[in-house]
What does this fold into?
Amino acid sequence: MRDAEIVDRVRSDPRSIPGTYLGVDSQTAIQEVTRGGQAAFDEPWNDLSPDDRVLLYAHFFQLGHLEELIEAGRQLFEASRIEAPIVVDLGCGPFTGGLAIASMLGRKTRVDYVGVDRSAAMHRLGERLASEAERSHGMPTLHRRWAADISSIDWNRAPGWRPVIVIASYLLASPTLDAVALVTDLDRLLTRLGRGPVTIFYTNAVGADANRGFPGFRAALRDAGFEVVADDTGEIEISRQSREKPRLFRYALFQRQRQDTLHLG
Ligand SMILES: C[S@@+](CC[C@H](N)C(=O)[O-])C[C@H]1O[C@@H](n2cnc3c(N)ncnc32)[C@H](O)[C@@H]1O
It folds into this structure.
């Protein structure tokens, strides 16, 4: 699906003359057009539209992020069964966390997926990848909704006990983001969703810059009752379809048990 929906679309575009991707070289695509994933994607860049920018993001970054999330999820799902989760993908990009979750969960389980991203162009590509994966590649149906921020998520069901999986993949490097405020908004959302167990995946590039928001994020999650299950700063080796070299990434996992105790006084 990646070949058909991303790689071939870039290659067959008339602007992609040899050595370029939609008319820009790879360094420009990575550093300027996508700004390593931190661009304001909904603004045009020279002659490239928001949809072009997002397509280049998917071309250069999505596969690596997806492989990391699948590996992180595999380790988690080996240890525990998670049935009928609500998945909240923070800074979802083009449905990256949704694709990872779909590859891990059985076909029968109901999954509600909420993709949160400030970029409408990311939602558009995410929705295209999701419907194509369902239509032609046997991906189980994920009941999807998209939102620009956490407070505008449209969720009208009564709070319940379903497990929630939160994905924060390569979000915290963003200079637009206040990690502590993010946890406050997230906790408010979790209360709207219910009192079931919550698992949070954090993945990012290694290095202090990319993870500058992490200490605040981690401390705020602890204050909100989360336990740090894993916090790996070192090398995590994953087998890659795309390259032979192991990929380095920063990974953390947080969990909060279902909240079934009523604290009085
Ligand atoms: C590096 S990309 C990661 C995308 C996806 N999680 C992945 O791993 O492929 C960061 C994403 O966060 C979004 N983003 C950045 N700041 C944001 C904010 N303040 N609120 C919502 N989304 C934001 C960007 O639009 C972008 O799609």
